[in-house]
């Protein structure tokens, strides 16, 4: 159940009650594709960096180790020793990203595994069955994430098929949640809005899927090549046509600036690989912008990455030491940068929630962007 605590402009402050705990929103979900955050981050670490929701990848876990294996071991929570909410994507994004390895049909998608070339079929029912085996808190509907740019004709066919698939997902998950041997009988289904950069198609699709009265709704198919301006334009168009009393999730986004802009437009769930991917390359986020820890200017710098930061890196280690680790290709350097970045993102979401509660989100956003963009 989703409770709205306050609305400041369009920015929403709420909480989603789940079988695995309460998610305070707006929230950034930390991406653990193969049931682990890349960068040698443990589930104990996740608690230390204020992670509320871990996100894992249905397609990748189906390929390896296999969702049947995870089911036999008691589901994803037991498997990775994490007792808070988990969201699993549907495999739909791989339909987009593994273009050369797949064929889309009405019944579903035929894949070749990116690991060993083995033939895989995934449709709405199969995606729900895999996610039920994983026993995640939130399951995402199986959809097609169309390429950018796409013709209007292609997009219409794709969106219509995504709608038909969503109905099949809902029916199948209801069936699975009613079975005696299902691990998580309270699994929630989020539908996904598609339509590329065609505003009218987005709005019409939002209206259609809203009628299904799902626990939450995502906006997919953005951050796939369009400009930030186009993404914000689509959010302004479509968010008002999704239920305000349900979570609104912008998939795969983004930078701190993207998140601040999207919250102002009514989005309250986010995920992105940026903090972990950039951290593994020595790029760290701070309130004064992004820093490259490999820069020579940090060689003798005994300050933390960011003064006042409470993350495991900043409370213990210097910029000079972290730079040395990265230059020496020691895994600890990568790990410390990832932990810092996740802490930065999760702390920013805390600040966002507090600002909305106090009806000062607009001022907070302006101040945050001013400091972040100008490095002061």
Automatic annotation (TrEMBL):
EC main group: transferase
Top-rank taxon: Bacteria
Keyword ATP-binding among record annotations: no
Keywords attached to this entry: Glycosyltransferase, Metal-binding, Queuosine biosynthesis, Transferase, tRNA processing, Zinc
Binding site for substrate: 89-93, 143, 194, 221
GO molecular-function terms, A-Z: metal ion binding; tRNA-guanosine(34) queuine transglycosylase activity
InterPro entries for this protein: ArchSynthase1/Queuine_TRR, TGT, TGT-like_sf, tRNA_ribo_trans-like
Reactions catalysed according to its record: 7-aminomethyl-7-carbaguanine + guanosine(34) in tRNA = 7-aminomethyl-7-carbaguanosine(34) in tRNA + guanine
UniProt pathway: tRNA modification; tRNA-queuosine biosynthesis
Any one GO cellular component localisation term in the record: cytosol
UniProt xrefs under Gene3D superfamilies: Queuine tRNA-ribosyltransferase-like
Cofactor binding annotation: Binds 1 zinc ion per subunit.
Family: Belongs to the queuine tRNA-ribosyltransferase family.
Name of protein: Queuine tRNA-ribosyltransferase
Organism per entry: Natranaerovirga pectinivora
Lineage start: Bacteria, Bacillati, Bacillota, Clostridia, Lachnospirales
């Amino acid at each position: 159940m989703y409770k709205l605590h306050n609305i400041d402009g369009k920015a929403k402050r709420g909480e989603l009650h789940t079988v695995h705990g309460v998610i305070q929103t707006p929230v950034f979900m930390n991406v653990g594709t193969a049931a682990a955050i890349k960068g040698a981050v443990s589930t104990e670490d996740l608690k230390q960096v204020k992670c509320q929701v871990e996100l894992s990848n249905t397609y990748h876990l189906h390929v390896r180790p296999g969702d049947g294996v995870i089911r036999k071991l008691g589901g994803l929570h037991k498997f990775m020793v994490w007792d808070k909410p988990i969201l699993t994507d549907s495999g739909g994004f791989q339909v987009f990203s593994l273009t050369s390895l797949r064929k889309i049909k009405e019944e579903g998608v035929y894949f070749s595994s990116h690991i060993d070339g083995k033939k895989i079929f995934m449709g709405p029912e199969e995606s729900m069955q895999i996610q039920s085996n994983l026993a995640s808190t939130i399951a995402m509907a199986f959809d097609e994430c169309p390429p950018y740019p796409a013709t209007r004709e292609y997009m219409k066919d794709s969106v219509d098929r995504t709608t038909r698939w969503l109905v099949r997902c809902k029916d199948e998950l209801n069936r699975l949640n009613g079975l005696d041997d299902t691990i998580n009988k309270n699994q929630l289904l989020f539908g996904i809005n598609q339509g590329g950069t065609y505003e009218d198609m987005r709005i019409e699709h939002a209206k259609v899927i809203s009628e299904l009265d799902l626990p939450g709704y995502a906006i997919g198919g953005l951050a796939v090549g369009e400009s930030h301006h186009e993404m914000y334009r689509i959010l302004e168009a479509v968010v008002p046509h999704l239920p305000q009393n349900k979570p609104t999730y912008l998939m795969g986004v983004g930078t701190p600036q993207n998140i601040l802009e999207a919250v102002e437009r009514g989005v309250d769930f986010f995920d992105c690989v940026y903090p972990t991917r950039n951290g593994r390359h020595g790029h760290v986020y701070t309130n004064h912008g992004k820093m490259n820890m490999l820069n020579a200017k940090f060689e003798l710098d005994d300050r933390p990455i960011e003064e006042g930061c409470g993350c495991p890196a900043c409370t213990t280690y210097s910029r000079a030491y972290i730079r040395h680790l990265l230059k020496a290709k020691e895994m600890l350097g990568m790990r410390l940068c990832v932990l810092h970045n996740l802490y930065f993102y999760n702390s920013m979401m805390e600040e966002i929630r507090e600002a909305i509660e106090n009806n000062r989100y607009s001022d907070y956003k302006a101040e945050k962007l001013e400091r972040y963009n100008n490095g002061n």
